[in-house]
Amino acid sequence: MRILHVIQRYYPYIGGSEQVCQVIAERLAAEGHTVDVWTSNAWDLDHFWASGRRTIDQPTEQHNGVAIRRFPIVRAPGPALVYPILRRAMLELGRLPATSSLLMALSQITPRMPAFNRALSQEIGQFELVHAANITLDFMLIPALKYAKQAKIPFVLSPYVHLGVPGDRSLVRYYTMPHQIKLMQQADRVIVQTPLEADYLADCGISRSTLRCIGVGVEPHELAGGDAERFRQETGIQQPFVLYIGTLAKEKGAFDLIRAMEQLWASGRSEHLVMVGTPMAHFEQLWEMLDPASKQRIHVFARAPQERKRDALAAATLFAMPSRTDSFGIVYLEAWLYRLPVIGARAGGVPAVIREGETGLLVDYGNVAQLTAALTQLLTNPELAQRLGQQGYAQTLAELTWEHKYAQIRAVYAELVEARIQGSGIRG
């Protein structure tokens, strides 16, 4: 097979969806398939709407058998606010009937990648299947779908819908505007992460015959080797600490975790907070306003290599990421591989991943008091913490490795490509 993966960011940037794309692409390449990944030149997420953020300036690269091609982002003139204003306007327009075509056109205003669109038009007939990801950044998905239709090849979509807090549509509505629903309806297969996401999309009008609930996994051997003592020696952090790994952003629960830790410190506890991840601009603003005493107990590693992350996992006391913007949450699996108890939020797909009271604890998103109580519970009850971490470890090895998950994704590809070859149609 010759596969085209379309995703907004890719290696060397490492995030949740990017990591999934990389694992699938590299496993396919190792099997002898030809795999191309077309992506943007963005490193920081906010490069899509704001100037002055980091980029990856190498336009082409070959990595682990995968051909990577990066295209420059072009933004509409004006301040960074142009993007959120446009998306809010699209949201309001989506309340009106028959607006999906208009919304698709508006989604191409900013950001956009003219060179990506031109390259697609030059590659008709070069690929057998397209797999695209991330429905909220739809500016790449619409050209990718158009290409697949013109080339008459299967189009697979991993939307990574962020369901947000149950009963609150303020987040999920940005993933289910009329044009985004139409995109998913036109896909030959929609790969979702949890039954919660599958049920929600089915209620939105996505045919269950095209939905495949697969989720994601981890590679235990790639996460192995963390050295707690090396982490302490290299960082100078000798105190027990709570670990957070992820984009440093409000929606990920980073702000709430800092506030909860400040409450723990006010009560006399001495644990520190280690945060590994790329900071968004608004996190940098929060950091500038933090009390100096808090800053002394918070250790931020913005550009940590994988070895540093593994060492942090080996040295941590517990893992917490009370996010509302995770359709699954690979980092919980990574923490479980180190037998860490985890804390997540009752939001997105996380309640389908963390079995409350069995493999971790859940709190209401944004509820700092609940988060403080959950942290206190695990820090003061080592037997509970050990039991949750051990059961999370067992669940991960039994159900959530890439050995299990890749086989399911590979089967989706094979089914669609074989159906196309036989000319039997590929819907349902």
From TrEMBL:
The encoding gene: mshA_12
InterPro entries given in the database record: Glyco_trans_1, Glyco_trans_4-like_N, Glycosyltransferase_grp1
All residue ranges annotated as the Glycosyltransferase subfamily 4-like N-terminal domain in the record: 15-216
Organism: Herpetosiphon gulosus
Matching Pfam families: Glyco_trans_4_4 (PF13579), Glycos_transf_1 (PF00534)
Protein name per Swiss-Prot or TrEMBL: D-inositol-3-phosphate glycosyltransferase
Stretches assigned to the Glycosyl transferase family domain: 229-394
